[in-house]
Design a protein that fits this description.
alpha+beta, six-stranded mixed sheet, 10 helices, about 40% helix, globular, binds 2-deoxy-2-fluoro-alpha-D-galactopyranose
Length: about 375
Amino acid sequence: MSEWLSPDVIASAPGRVNLIGEHIDYSQGFVLPFAISYRTTASLRRRDDQVIRVRSKQRLDDVVTSSISELAPGSQGGWERYVLGVIWSLGIKEGVDIEIDGDVPLGAGLSSSAALECAVAIGLSEMFSLGLSKKELALLTQKAENQYVGVPCGIMDQSVSLMAEAGAALLLDCRDLSTTLVPFDLGASGLELLIIDTQAHHALVDGEYAKRRQACESACTKLQIASLRDLDLATLIADRDSLNDEEFKRAHHAVSEMARTLEAVVVLRQKDFVALGRLITQSHVSLRDDYEISCAELNCAVDVALAHGALGARMVGGGFGGSAIALAGQSQIEEIKGAIAEAFKSASFREPRFFTSLPSEGAKVIKRLDR
Ligand code: GAF
């Protein structure tokens, strides 16, 4: 095997936490995520043949080799499919070596897969001078995940990984991908956002996610609307009899979550963190009871955080495991962490991991080396 030469382009992209607006990106709603400081880096080098080689800095001898002509949606494999899928969706026709590094926690529901896709995408776009906008890259990386890897995700994770800015949450309108930055400086108010990785299984690929999407779509068909974005609570309640129980509950979450997200933007601009915390907790209750995607570990983390003084707490991401967030005073964070760790131990759950992050910048090219 030929050696790895120095890269032409180095690019990186972050994971994300969603403040509020969960499971509504595919219903064309508003979401309010921010990029975390944990990032994935892709080092890329052009080849003069059609070969693709992918490896991770953590396992340098474990090289996956493919070729441009072999790229096909639905291919079997591991994490490298997220890289190959992006090469495929961007329509790259030349060989490339890609080495991946990074510190986005895996399996924690913090979008390590979007970080990987977006680092590769922005690197390829730079290296081949494709001139793709961040919006185009978001759609192409989503296409890679949907079609190549086969995960029916929405557009939120890739969008925020690409378009986020430091110091702000990103209000994303998932109907047209327009964005508004909302300043998000918790530290100045003596607050912190604790991320609690429950280490419980994240089952996005397992079909429950697709089932939620289908229930939302069948509700739309019955109500003769294009998406749940076109519905309000009063109409949903008036038309309750045209939906089955499952469709009603899923639509109820989506419609109420869209309203909560817009309200969260208002209170965030006013620095009313008590109101923000209340909305965050309401989001959790809705995801738990209407959307039914929480689990014992997430509920425990949320309940214990609230019992120990958090202003708000909720599960984040796809659900069925992964992470929760808790908005709390900086002085309360240690007590909350200790109480959650203790509660997890008593319940015989896996040991939780704790992270925190300021809102960070989106994907970028770090270096372009001329040769
Ligand atoms: C996952 C998906 F990838 C996103 O598109 C989004 O639907 C999220 O779950 C739930 O809000 O992260």
